[in-house]
Amino acid sequence: MKNDWSNLEAKKYINKYQKLGHSRDMALRVYTTRLLGRNSELVLHGGGNTSVKTSIKDIDGKNYDVLCVKGSGWDMAEIEPAGLPAVKLNPLLSLKNKKYLSDEDMVAFQKRNLIDIKSPNPSVETFLHAFLPFKFVDHTHSDAIMNVTNRPNGKDFCKKIFGSKVSIVPYVMPGFGLAQKINEVYSKNPNINCLILLNHGIFTFDNDAKKSYDLMIKYVSIAERAVKNIKRKKIKQIKRYNNSLKPFEISPILRGLLSETKNLKFIVNYRSNKILDYFINGKEVRRYTGLGTATPDHVIRVKPFPLVISPKPKSTIEDFKKLAEKCFRDYRQKYIKYFDTNKKKVKGKKTMLDTSPRVILVQNVGLFSVGDSLRAAKIAGDLTETNARVISSVEETSKYKFIPEKDLFDVEYWSLEQAKIKKAKKALQGNVVVITGSFGAIGSATYKLFKSYGAEVVLLDYNLQKVKEMKSKVKDLCLHCDVTNKSSVNRAFKIITETYGGIDILISNAGTAIGGSIAEVDDKILRQSFEDNFFSHQNCASETIKIMKKQNIEGCLLFNISKQSVNPGKNFGPYGLPKSALLNLCKQYAVDYGSLGIRSNGVNADRIRSGLLNDGMIKSRAKAREVSTDEYMRGNLLLNEVKAEDVAKAFFHLAISKKTTGAVLTVDGGNIAASLR
């Protein structure tokens, strides 16, 4: 493994953080923590931790010896001093000889001894870091270390390759018990500089930041070389065949089956590569994936075992659906049995989590990772890739072996680990929202509002330059799409389903404002207006319906119609006519698909400053109505200008109104002439 230490970079960190009031110790701690965290073969998504023992002056003016240890919720790759909360060291050390400390008491004790009570919770391995008498302590879940430990002869193999400076520690669940065990091991052999925790990870330590980091790279490299020198034999593969089943067809089916209740929705993210294909298409994939994850803390994100689906050659999508339904039933029964068996072996009451898998392996297709957000789904995918690398490598040289099922259960249902991922659920969490015409005033306001309620939002727009610009600003999926072109819509929606698994809410917002006297308007212009303001909506809605039917869960179509649909304006017929047709299209979708739980509603908005209604258009419409521009914009019963944010709120209201369909909500400040009858 490459050593990424740079003296120049280290000096930059020291200078930067000393200017911000932090010590040299803290600067180097941040630097080496980032070096470790940015290597995906060492640390992934919150795994691992680091610490430094130093001194800090508290508000009382006294200097305290403290342990600055990685805090909960911080990623090592982007750590800052705030992510290394300072805990008073002496109180921690005073418990060295204590025989037992419950998890709850441990966490409370750590919190009570924080220098800053507003700091994040210190790591569950805080006591372990404290008991090791070194300034710098580094801990990772290295792929290579997992490779040498997660095998039948793992302990003996480690003793053979690492030498006398390394102690091999049997698996003990993290917490105070593990800290006690490490204290015992170190007391017997104080000359060590590394601990290999079987089925868990590696600790290195020194009074110098660089040396501790160097030790990590040294021992991981030893493990890499040792594995490389073992005679290998490729994992036996199933028969490969060209599968007619496409990921964008499969994803919505899986997404629907994942939802045990109407209120529980998941994101399904597809990926495929050589490493995953090799792993997934192994003949014994059910055996080696059923033994557990590469390191225990993975289980809280990917569950103890994946769902494996093996379609037959020449399977149709209907064949796959039937097979998937059976596989899901079997998986849920297996998980319930796993829970019922292991809850009897532990103290205290345990409440079963949902029985939906977080990893779905479809042979000859790829990996479908699952989460309550796209981020969570991608994390599950990243962890599965790590498991694939480790388990495949072990299987080529031995047989994969992990901790007993009961120990894995303890971690999955460990309150301290569950707390890492538990967050207050927002109203639209797990929902996939697609917005067309997303970079205009209404589209932008709608994006911000729906995002604030936890939705996964996909932004579609015809303006390629704006798409490129937005991609650099937001993490959400931004796609160039010509909604008047069925092929363009089809391509975009395939990407959406492979990324998110499906669609819950379509906000069909795109359109153009075209004016002119109806008898004099050119046929080409009128037809184009129908393409922009009617058929574009039909293209997106019909494609969405295909996906929603496969999901077989609730869905919602929302159309930006216009008050022109019921209250035509002078010289605005080319715009108003297709909007009138759109009003009826909205109602037709409600009639045709209501029985499937798919709602269809619209918003009739009027006089919203946007790309459609720009300053020039406002002047033109005001002139046509023989009023000033200000009077035109406030020409409603409330005498108040309606804004894009008001339209966004109307869309949101209709999105969460579960028993409303075929409805049109008018947002115009009040105009009796434009009200629906």
Please give a handful of descriptors for the protein shown.
single chain; alpha/beta; L-fuculose-1-phosphate Aldolase; 18 strands
Describe the structure.
This protein folds into three domains: 222 residues, Class II aldolase/adducin N-terminal domain (L-fuculose-1-phosphate Aldolase); 175 residues, L-fuculose-1-phosphate Aldolase (3-Layer(aba) Sandwich); 203 residues, 3-Layer(aba) Sandwich (Rossmann fold), CATH 3.40.50.720. The chain is 45% helix and 13% strand. The protein is built from 25 helices and 18 strands. The chain has a seven-stranded mixed sheet with strand order 3-2-1-4-7-6-5, sandwiched between helices. A seven-stranded parallel sheet has the order 14-13-12-15-16-17-18, with helices on both faces. A four-stranded mixed sheet has the order 8-11-10-9, with helices on both faces. α10 packs parallel to α14 and α11 crosses α15. The chain is globular. The mean pLDDT is 93.
Q: What integer is the average pLDDT?
A: 93
Question: Which ranges are low-confidence, i.e. pLDDT below 50, for 5 or more consecutive residues?
Answer: none
The CATH top-level class label of the largest domain = Alpha Beta
The number of helical runs is: 25
